[in-house]
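Weekly structure sync, notes
Attendees: PL (lead), two postdocs, one rotation student
Agenda item 3: pending single-chain targets
PL asked that the sequence for the first pending target be pasted directly into the notes so everyone works from the same version. It is reproduced below exactly as submitted, 342 residues in total.
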Amino acid sequence: MSDAAALPLALTLGEPAGIGPDLALSLWYRRRELDVPPFYIIADPDFLGQRARLLGLDVALERAAPGGARETFDKALPVVPLDGKVTAQPGAPDRSSAAAAIGAIDAAVADVMAGHASAVVTNPINKHVLYRAGFTDPGHTEYLARLAQRTTGKPVMPVMLLWSPELAVVPVTIHMALKDAIAQLSTQLIVDTGRIVARDMNRWFALARPRLALAGLNPHAGEDGTLGREDIDIVAPAVAALKAEGVDARGPLPADTMFHAAARASYDVALGMYHDQVLVPIKTLAFDHGVNVTLGLPFLRTSPDHGTAFDLAGTGRADPSSLLAALKLAARLTARTPVPAT
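Predicted structure, written out during the meeting:
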């Protein structure tokens, strides 16, 4: 067991009006049945107690410091208290929501950077709630990168990996309009992304030489320029540059033939040029158990691959499968237990 494996996972509260608190409570309640790795949640203990009673879950809660959370986990859910009270009700964010969500992220990153936790696992946030409170980053990933850069003083380029046993994918451009994604796409961006993917698939997934398959931007990868020159002028030079660095990369490949079973067996990670090009396939194959892994950070971060689901909060009907997968993957990766890329 590595030193990191002896530490608990730091789980953030996420949007308190969403299903994140429900999932955390449910997983601790079923911890033995589901073999849940030890974690602590950064939250308001009184708020969690109220949510547990609403869900009808007999969950023992214990205020804890990160360092003692692993020993506490078997008998009680360790809760590292947030500053301030959380008053949001299920499905109804209020003025306490943004402060609680951001405060939990800040504390989790500080804990893992200080060596008190092995990895950060984040519950879903609601960006619109955060934006109304003055949040300026596009999302979780960018905010985490900014925290890491502030802590280390080194530039950080985060890369979003969506992982499942069936498929692992990375979008080169992420949350932007398609016209803006095409405008932003460049050979350098693809190379930088591919380099981080290759490095961190080796670092975290223990793949000696990760195999990267890069999708073309245009239908049929442009058909030799008849459907656009971007694949000739932008994507192909990036593949060549990655190969020159010793990365096992191939492409540009037609995206419409990359995701059937035989094709998936030929690579470890598929890189798409825009968000839906690769997220549609993985969410089709692994909607309930896909995990979001942020590469490029000085620590490991995973999260469930779903949103806050306000309509399910407080009902007891939320499915914890994706959060369970995020916790288990974080525990396996930080313990350096071999995990197949796909």
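Discussion points:
- DSSP finds 13 helices and twelve strands in the chain.
- The domain at 1-158+299-342 is CATH 3.40.718.10 (Isopropylmalate Dehydrogenase).
Action: rotation student to compare against the earlier draft before next sync.
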